[in-house]
Each structure stands twice: as structure tokens, then as C-alpha cells.
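Dear colleague,

Following up on Tuesday's group meeting, I ran the structure prediction for the two-component complex that the binding team flagged. I've pasted the input sequences exactly as they went in, so you can double-check that nothing got truncated or mislabelled along the way. The C-alpha cells for the whole assembly follow below. Feel free to forward this to whoever is handling the docking comparison.

Inputs:
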Amino acid sequence: MSEATKREGDAIGVEALRPEATVEVEDPAVESRNLTVSYGAKVAVREMNLRIPRHQVTAIIGPSGCGKSTYLRAINRMNDTIPRCRTRGQLFVDAEDVYGPGVDPVLLRRKVGLIFQKPNPFPKSIHENVAFGVKLHYFASKEELETIVRGALEQANLWDEVKDRLDEGALSLSGGQQQRLCIARALAVEPDMLLMDEPCSALDPIATAKIEDLIFELKKDVTVVIVTHNMQQAARVADFTAFMYMGKLVEFNRTRDLFEKPRESLTENYITGRFG
Amino acid sequence: MPTAAERKALTKGLLKLNENMLTLAELSELSIRKAVEALAHPDHALAEDVFTLDQEIYALQIEVERTCGDLIALHAPVASDLRTVTTSLKMTTDLDRIGRYAKDIAEISLQLPAGAETWYGKLPGLAKMVDHTIEMVDTATDAFVRREAERVRNIAEADDAVDALYEATFHAIVQFMKDGTLEEETGARYLLVTRYLERIADHAVNLGERIVYMVTGERVPRVRFADRAAGRDTASRREAKRP
């Protein structure tokens, strides 16, 4: 660790990421290099270096305000819409720097979908919700559209529950169904990656279990990055887990190792509740 | 992340678990001491004490299992907390087995014919085997209390010494039986005693391995006796060469 890096780490009470506190990832789906995101004078994510494995589920955990959602939203440039938000460093999705010149954020978001904390279906029919993104990006015939909508709803484990009421309003669905509809909507445009920002925090345990089952199945087709406050959820669904604290990445490890034998005392103190 | 209140409740549960584990380890060790004492100086009351201790150990084992179940179900512990709970669950089995072997020795003390106790002192290696075995359990208990992995990392070495004493005592008993100085039934029962002590030492090794995992998260690799012996030879040769 260079003196300069150490000093910077010390300034916020967290040392820079130690090589022992991370694992090698070959051919990452996402790679951030010295990514710093700030809101005005406040630095939310600081010098973040992380390689997110392809076709795996990666959880990001950490206390409120540690920068995990900011980092997640940086991946598909959702922070662009926030006034005074500034991003420095590099972030590669499939080896392309998404903050490089000429990158179309709309096309990026087709490739990298985002699921929010609270389900946010459009006030339209179930069918229209799923078809919306497809119509935006492609010209699809009616038959093609039907196939895509059905495929996305099946992939989101929702088809059997809504197949007879596709024209009903999406807002008539339960919270858990609405969240799976949002996932189907994101899947309909065939993304490579799904970002999930606490997708189950507004759901009951049964709806949560359905989403978790879905996440497990989805990784066959997409890379999943999930921000969660629920450590048991991270332990259940994620292959890898990143722990962030005060804007910095403290540890990135296989989930089993991180929860059984964390390499940093800061991680241990956080996950066992011995914090502060 | 658990809240402060949840952490407090978990800490309370872990403290209770720690206390029960310590008591369990102490009772197991006490039962060996009493059983061996009953063997060396035939004393029915001492043997009865060991049977009572066995009951207490079993009850405490159930209590520890219940506490561990509650901690897992109510607090979903992780990291060192999880290792403490899972290790305690495994250690109770070893400690219970140690108590059962002590009980078996106490039973033998009641079955020996009058005068057989004099063989306790005559059998070469037996008293030493008892001391080594008790020391191994004591060391493991202490390492658990102090969370000191290094104290038990090489506990298998101590077991090698017990195994060597077991072999020596075994052959001595067989020889005494062959030449007719040791009556067959008494000899056979002493053979069982040595076997039980050797098994207790094996369980102490298990305790040591589990304590290393609990403290550090590392799994101690199982090394064959021959490889350990070869390692010792190399180390002693290196030591001898030092100026």
C-alpha cells in the first residue's frame, strides 16, 4: 500500500483494500477502476476497485450511507440524473468504459437493468408493462411480442399467476407480483445484467423467497448484482459478497468465506453486529 | 447487521454457551480423574461419582445443544459467532464420549477382583498414559477458554506419545498374561482401560482441531503419524546441526 493511499484511507478511518481481502476474478462482467462518485462535496464512493464475476450473483453489503446503492447505480449510469453528482475513474461493462465518450446511457440500461427497492410498475396493463421496453428498443411483430412477453413472465416465475389476466392493470397485483413483473419487464429486453437495489425490502417472507428463488435461476442467463441490508439474504443468494464501509470497498470474497471467516476485522465487526 | 439489542442478546447467549462448555469440559476431565482414582484405589463411592458425573455431562450436553439451536434459530450467527456455535456443538460430542469412556473405566474398577489394583502401579506406562491423557484434555479446555489456537495446533504430537505408551502397556500386559503372572480376566480388563485412555486422547485431538477452527477459521489438516514422525526427525537433525 502506498503512503498516499494509506493516508487517504486513514482520513476516513478505513484502510485501502488489502490484496488478502479480495479474490481474483477472471473475465469480469463489470470492472471498476478507481471509481469515485461524489454528490457535490460529499464523496459517496471512493477509489473503488472491484471486478464483478460474470453469471454469478454478487451481493453488496454495508451500513446505510456506505455508498453501496450509489455504486450500483453507477454501473448503469443512473446517477447521471442526480444533480451535482460527479463520477470519476473508470467503469467497464463487458470491457467497455461506460463513462467513455459516445456511450448511450439508454442502450447501456437495456443491457444493464435495474430493479428498485419498491416495485414501480407503470400504470398500464401487465402485458403493456412487459412489452414497453421491447417496443422502445425493437420493432417486433405482434407474434414476436407475445412470445417475448410470455418468455419474460415465465423467466420471472410470474406467467402461471397472470396468464389469464394479462390485460388487467399491473397495480392490481400484490407487492411481490409487482416486483416480479418489474423483473420480467427488465428481462424482456434481454439484458446481460440485472442490478437489484434491496429488491425485497418491501416484501413479505413468502414474496421474498420467490424473488430469491428467481435470482438463483436468473444467474444462468444474467449477471446479478444485489444491494441488500439483509445479511441472511446475501448469504442465501450470493456467490460473492462485497462489504463497503464509508465509501470504500473493505472486503470482496466468496460469500461462504466472508460469512464464515472474514479476512478483515471491520467486516467481522459489521456482520456480527459489534460495530461502533 | 444485527441491531445493538440483537447483538446484546446474542452476546448473552454466547456467554451462557461458553460457561456451559467450560463446565462440560471440567466435568469430563473430572470424570477421568475420578475413574482412574477408583481404578488405582478401589473405591465404590468414587466409581458412583463417575456414574453421577456421566448423567450431569449428558444433561449439560442436551442443554448446550438446545442453546446452540436457539442461537442459530433466533440470531443466525455469522463469522466467529457461527464458528463458536458450530464448534461447541461438535465439541459436546467429544466431551460426552470422554465422559462415557471415564464411566467405562469406573465400571471396570468395580469388576476387578480383589488385589488387582496393585497392577495399576506395576504396568509400565499406564500411570504416564493417564497423566498425558488428562493433560491433553486440560490443555484443550484451557485453549477453549482462552481462545488460544496455538496451544492446541500440534496436539496430535501429544497423542503420538499416548499412542506409544498404549503400545508399550499393551505389550507388557500381554506378556504378563502369557507368562502367567497376570490373571487373564484382570489383564483383559486392563487392556480395555488402556484402550479407553487412548480413545480419550483421540477425542482430545478432535477438541484441539475444532478449537483451532473456532479461533482462526482454519481447518487443521490430518497428518499421518509416519509423516509427523518424519517431520520430528528432520527438525531434531536440524537442531543437532545448529552451532
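DSSP finds eleven helices and ten strands in chain A.

Cheers,
M.
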